[in-house]
Structures are given as structure tokens and as C-alpha cells.
Design brief:
- The protein is of the alpha/beta class.
- The chain is built from ten helices and 20 strands.
- It is globular and about 65 Å long.
Length: 388
Amino acid sequence: MTSDQRVTISKRATERVKAGHLWIYRSDIIDCQAEGGLVVSLYDNKDKFYGKAFYSNKSQIALRLITTQNDKIDRDFWQNRIKIALDLRQKVVSDTEVCRLINSEGDGFPSVIVDRYKDVLSLQTLSQGSDKIKMLIAEILIKLVNPVSIIERNDGKVRELEGLPRQNLILKGPDPDEIICAENGLKFYFHPLSGQKTGAFLDQRENRMWARNYSFGSGLDCFCYSGGFALNMAQNCCQVEALDISKDAIDLSKKNALLNGIENILFEADNVFDRLKLYDSQKKKFDTIVLDPPAFAKSRSHVQAAVRGYKEINFRALRMLNPGGILITASCSQHIDEFAFLNILTRAASDAGRKVQVIQKRTQSQDHPFLLSMPETYYLKCVFLRVL
């Protein structure tokens, strides 16, 4: 598995490596004769060694750094990385049967994601290099975790940038189809082969628990998907409305509510922007509102439109909250950083004529660690605001 092939990188690339960033772009490669998917050794033009990386001959992210040491990249290397990741989960994950076991670059495992749904593992390999070792990863996970099934969940569009096919396959065991798993003391249906991402949005798991703690009175959950926030809010709210534009998402939410015997949620399929505008014009009020939209900015070209979208929904929500009300608002857009998101919220509050306190400022759950040296791994911002 170890390759002797060398890649010469630019001074700009070596500075990125020294700063702790794990990506090197094609424009910073001086010389490379390697095949796509290989592990290559990185050198500058003075023959100084900088590490080993996955090489892609298709993507603009041409190199994904694995290590800055001259390690042998073999089965033992990857098994040790997986053990380190699993050890972290033992420390930070509790009260759930679903979690992320490997969080790509955040765990030193570039372009690899592994999520756990009780006895089912969902594996994504998003680059040529990680795709070459997916069966090795699966074998190590079988040894260390012993799942009933392992699903290859590789239908993401990002694989097209690597020249890889989009596919969902079963690597081990039976097709899990629909399974029930517990999260924060509630039960949910999951579909590892067909649900969003690897089956669900696990990065908000801890934030959903905090939302339960802060919720009260009348609640509104916008972009509810499978009802994760709504079901948690319903524990302390007298009534919750949950909105999503997808009828399939609303149907799944209703099933999850029924599974838990929860009856104080009204689920409706509707456009959230339209509904918020309507409720604002009707002067309808709530005590707790959750805004958990999809990524509005999937590329830098979408940033300005995303800023307008985030500003609009937060402006409407703040106008609709009673004094003392709670707004739990999130952005999973990587291209909208924390400073930009807080600035959007500041302007939304000002335009709404509301004074707000920041109660909590949170990010993705602890099983989704990120690197200080790599801003791209810190994507989820979740802010808890109280209206004064």
C-alpha cells in the first residue's frame, strides 16, 4: 500500500502543510507522475520531505495529507487511526445508538466518513485514495466493531469531482432497510441506504438535546426533516408546529412522533420562507423557534444569496418570538463562517427591533471533531438566543 512515488509541491503548499492544513490544490503541484488513488510522498524543490498524502488526478484538491511523518501507510497504520477515533467516541458519546465514528479530516482520516446506526455502519469514501482502501477500512471495522451490516453510502455528488461512480452498496451483512435507533432517550426510524447524508443528520444530536432543555410554551420547528428538534421540543412545549417543504420528510416525522407516543406536534409540508412571512403578517407569536435549514451556500458563488436567506428567516423568527422567547438558529454552510453568521444575526435582530442575549454558542456534536488549522472542518454553527 505504501508508494515510493514522489510529488514535488510549491512553497505555498509547504506553508499550508506547516500551518496544519491537509489539502493541497493542483495549482501547487510542481511535478507529479503518480496514478490517481495512490499514497505519495511530498517533497519541495530542495528535496525536503513534508509528508504522505492521497493523490487524485481529477479533483482540484489534488493531495489530501495523511501524515507529516515518514510512516509506512499499511493496515496497522489505518487500524491505529481507527482505534484512536473509536477511543474518542467512548469518551464523548452517550445516551445514543447513533453517532459518527470517523469524521474524515477531523480524525486524521481524509475523505472518510463512518456513521453508526446501532449494529449498522455507513461508510463514505469521497476521494480516489480513500476509495482504494474502502474494503480494508471495512475489514478493520468488522474486527474492531463487529457490525451486523456495513453499507457503502457513496451517492454524494462530490465523488464526481474525483471521477468516481455514485453508488450505494452493501459491503457486509443483510440490507438493514428501516431500523429503529435511540437518540437522547427518543426513538427514530433510520434508513442507512436512502436517508439524507449517511441516513440522518447526526451533527445536531447534542444541539437537539439542548433545545429540549430550553424549549417552553408554543414551539415552531422549521426545516424539521425527520422531526429531531420537534420531538425534543415537544417534551417541554405545550404545542409544537413542525414545517418542511418535503412531504416525505413530514411523513417520516409523523412516524417518529407516533413511535414515541408524542401527540402535541402538528406537522405540515410547506415552504418555510412563505410560512414565516405569513405568520409574521398575522402577528402570530411563539415562545421557542428552531431554524435548522439546509446549507444555503454550497459554494462561494452562493454566499450573497445565502446571507439574504439567513437574514430573512432569522428576522422573521425574531419578530415572532414573545419576550423571553428562545431562538435556536443554525447554519451548516461551510462558506458562512461563525463571524459572518453572528453578524447576520446581529443585523436581523436590529432590523426586527429586538434585543437578544446569546445563551449558548455551539457547533457540531463532539463526535464530529474539527481541526483548528483547517476551517473547512468547522462548518456547523448553532446559536441559542433569548429575546429580552
